[in-house]
């Protein structure tokens, strides 16, 4: 996954999904997220000229879409906001 801030992005997904990230180096250009079992589930890399999607107007189209299955949206929503510091 391309992004401007790999450590922050990896930390968000780690807070959301659990597991562990491959480094604590906040300046790393490439970070992997692993399940607790050790299986790699996501790779995140710095893209210096990253341009975020402008969905839904599609001027800059979606570049990745991740679906996360939850048991309850009412329970999951606060966890997502907490993971992003909101």
TrEMBL record:
It comes from the Bacteria. It holds the Pfam family Glyoxalase_6. Residues 1-81 form the Glyoxalase-like domain. InterPro entries: Glyas_Bleomycin-R_OHBP_Dase (IPR029068), Glyoxalase_6 (IPR041581). This is Glyoxalase-like domain-containing protein. It comes from Brevibacterium picturae.
């Amino acid at each position: 996954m391309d992004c401007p801030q790999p450590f922050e992005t990896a930390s968000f997904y780690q807070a959301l999904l659990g597991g562990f990230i491959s480094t604590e180096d906040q300046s790393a250009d490439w970070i992997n997220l692993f399940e607790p079992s050790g299986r790699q589930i996501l790779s995140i890399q710095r893209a210096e000229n990253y341009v975020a999607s402008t969905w839904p107007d599609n001027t800059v189209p979606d570049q990745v879409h991740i679906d996360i299955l939850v048991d309850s949206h009412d329970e999951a929503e606060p966890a997502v906001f907490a993971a992003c510091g909101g």
